[in-house]
Amino acid sequence: MADDQALHLHCSVPVRSATVQLAHGGGGRLMQELIRDVFVRAFDNPMLAQLHDGAVFPVEQGALAFTTDSYVVSPLFFPGGDIGSLAVHGTINDLAMCGAMPLYLSAGFILEEGLSMETLRNVVDSMAKAAKEAGVRVVTGDTKVVDRGKGDGIFINTAGVGVMPPGIRIGPQEVKAGDAILLSGDLGSHGLAVMSVREGLRFTGEIESDSAPLHRVVRDLLECGVPVHCLRDLTRGGLASALNELAVGANAGMTIEEPLIPVRESVRGACELLGLDPLYVANEGRFIAFVQESHEDEALAAMRRHKVAHQAVRIGTVTEDCPSIVVLRTVLGTHRILDLLSGEQLPRIC
Amino acid sequence: MKYVDEYRDRTLAATLADRITQMVRRPWTIMEVCGGQTHAIVRFGLDALLPPNLTLVHGPGCPVCVTPIGLIDQALQLASLPRVIFCSFGDMLRVPGSQGDLFGVKAAGGDVRIVYSPLDALELARANPDREVVCFAVGFETTAPAYAMAAIQARRLGLTNFSLLAAHVLVPPAMEAILSAPGCLVQGFLAAGHVCTVMGYEEYEDLARRYRVPIVVTGFEPIDILEGIAMLVRQLEEGRAVVENQYARSVRREGNVAAQAAVREVFEPTLRAWRGIGDIPQSGLRLTPAYAGFDAAVRFRDALAQAGSVGAEDPDCRSGLVLQGLLKPPDCPAFATRCTPERPLGAPMVSSEGACAAYYRYRRGAGHGARGERQSA
After folding, report:
1. How far apart are the first and last CA of chain A?
2. B285-301, pLDDT tens digit by residue?
3. Which of A296, A306, B32, B234 could join A180 via S-S bond, C-beta 3.0 to 4.6 A?
4. pLDDT for residue A205
């Protein structure tokens, strides 16, 4: 202890820094302190507390699902969420879409020199809260610090493992003509919430991110005996991109009923104003399920029991016509292609 | 959604479509001037509701599409300058110049920012006194007042680091160019409602009279467009050619006088090249001598002289014919083959208001007409 105090007196970098500094990624005392005071404290579990090179945990018999994703959202905090909770929900949802129950996450942080330590703590605390609420544990991680100007405050990578219930076969290849396409809730809130803060736009009516973990609603959907053929969360590119990916993956056609797709009034209004199509806007707590048509009602009932999917609704059908093409029946009863976007949607000129 | 859903009513759309079908006795070709209307027509499949002897052709009303390649090259040059913050609406970032687009300049380190209003760019200039803020002033009469207000405000504030790269174009001279071109097919116009909200429609009356062409000022929602078409067809069938106003909830004959005054204070008409079409006299706006200090073309004259625009458009791109209503996008040999949104030959395939982009996105592989279900409406 005396040695530590002596070191503090001669160290040019204050140990209790208010901002992230390059030394926090250097592998030395400051990094150890950061890990202990910020990450281990927030994620608080015996596997992480061992501070081993990796986490060791028991596994059940059967199959494991494994996924990873990186989060680079700007701004870090937005109405209804932040990069921390998003990094937990996003990876949980990727596992859930495989049909797996998530168990353990890793968290890799790339921090920009000069980031406020308070901001970091807020993000990490939000991650810890999201993980606790979802019943998953952050059991291993990594930290790097990059020069000021070479990051965007915080980048987070999370990887996750989950357990697959036996007998589950979920994937685009399982999609069949006649399947009902179910949507868990209204679209576009996350993308508009982030955009509203990033661009300093103010919309009438509060628009909050829909960021939420989806594994419990998926678990109940699988346990209620409904033949679920495919699941997909609607992140970047929104509903339209997910449907197109699956139409190609399944080599199936899809017909979607535009009037049945729920979009909140405030989101529709903001999209109209900006020239954006809510069907392409990102979500972080919405998914589509392809289920055998005869079980549509049970599936919707199982989904609607959860707050995150209480608006669940059937929006379309898988068809044998036009393989790999998604056709939208418009509010006027006409048909048009619902295509992939070439890039990001850009606000229109006038 | 109030004021939108009413104009997307399925039953009303079917009623209007039936009324149009009953009225049409001879084949007619009509042009919607505005790219926003083109997208609404294709997005909602309105043409599928119309009788086959009524042909809709698409007009030059996409400001992104008609901005000449030389001006895009100037934008790329300015955006590459180290001290410049270059502001633009999002649409313009993907439009190809001779050597790339604004996204490419941004990736190479240029400070290119998407703004939602010229006044946002003005704020950037106030917040960054050590930088030059250049705003790409693109659009029709609709957006010109906002740019004019930005310049007026910049002068009031004494800002010396704010300028506009003026690229505005005016609709009536383009309509006249289309009408006077050999082989013109257009027998009636749906005029752009938003443009007329600012400018009114007095200047269209002279066009209607001289060319004996009916013009209906029309809004952008499906019911607006169908109602505009019905009004136009009635005139055509009755042999009349006057200006009528379908978009009366927004447009008055005299327009927005205050907005026009702001535009007149800052801008004056000038000859402007239209991409794919060519030079049209008095069809563009440039800054008046009193506002020359806010003219990026003046302020950065030396840098722009080095821009070295090639200015050549791809010879396979038929966008000029598309923009004049002489060709439908799927009839272009390059459509969806050599020319796609990922590798566009011309701006109408890139812009969110471009006719080629609308057909590619909503109609590709499905023929010219969307399938309709009028009987079930």
Report:
1. 66
2. 999 999 999 999 999 99
3. A296
4. 65
The dihedral built from the CA positions of residue A334, A258, B89 and B251, taken in this order, carries a sign that is positive
- B20 pLDDT above the threshold of 90: yes
The alpha carbon of residue A274 is apart from the nearest alpha carbon of chain B, in Å, by 9
CA B86, B92, B96, B101 torsion: positive or negative? positive
- Answer yes or no: do B352 and A334 touch at CB < 8 A: no
Residue B98: in which H helix or E strand, if any? none
pLDDT at residue B315 in the model? 84
Identity at B10, one-letter amino acid code: R
Say whether residue A149 is in contact with chain B using an 8 A CB cutoff. no
* Residue B368 CB coordination number (10 Å): 13
Q: How many CB atoms lie within 10 A of CB B365?
A: 11
Tens-place pLDDT, residues A265-296: 999 988 988 888 999 999 999 999 999 999 99
pLDDT of residue B218: 97
- Rounded to the nearest 5 degrees, what angle is found at the Cα of A233, between the Cα atoms of A228 and A238? 130
Q: Which contiguous run of DSSP H or E holds residue B23?
A: helix B10-23
- pLDDT for residue B10 is more than 50: yes
Instruction: Please state the rounded mean pLDDT for residues B81-88.
Output: 97
C-alpha to C-alpha distance for B197 and B249, rounded to whole angstroms: 10
- Give the C-alpha separation, A43 to A140, whole Å: 10
Q: Touching check for A336 and chain B: CB below 8 Å?
A: yes
Beta-sheet pairing, A253-257 with A326-329? parallel
B positions 332-361 inside 8 Å of A (CB): 340-342, 352-353, 360-361
Contact residues, chain B, for A332 at CB < 8 Å: 8, 10, 13, 44-46, 49, 222, 377
pLDDT reported for residue A180? 98
Residues 236-265 of A with CB under 8 A from B: 265
Cβ B30 vs Cβ B216: under 8 Å = no
Quick one: pLDDT band at residue A208, thresholds 50, 70, 90? Answer: very high
Q: Given an 8 Å threshold on Cβ–Cβ distance, is A331 in contact with B10?
A: yes
3-state secondary structure of A329: strand
**DSSP symbol at B248:** T
B317 close to B276: Cβ distance less than 8 angstroms: yes
**3-state class (DSSP) for residue A287:** strand
Q: For B114-138, what is each residue's pLDDT tens digit?
A: 998 899 999 999 999 999 999 999 9
Report pLDDT digits (tens) over A320-337: 988 999 999 999 999 999
A-chain residues near B48 (CB < 8 A): 334-335
A202–B contact, CB cutoff 8 A: no
Contacts of A269 in chain B (CB under 8 A): 1
Alpha-carbon separation of residue B69 from B101, B182, B231, B272 (angstroms): 11, 25, 37, 12
CA angle (B97 as vertex; B96, B100 as ends), nearest 5: 70
Strand, coil or helix: A263: coil
Residue type, A187: L
Mean pLDDT over each residue of chain B, to the nearest integer: 91
* Residue among B10, B93, B139 whose CB faces A346 most closely: B93
Q: Which of these, A181, A174, A182, A259, lies nearest to A217 by C-alpha position?
A: A182
Task: Average the pLDDT over A236-264 and give the result.
Answer: 96
* DSSP 8-state class, residue A38: I
Contacts A342 to B, Cβ<8 Å: 340-342
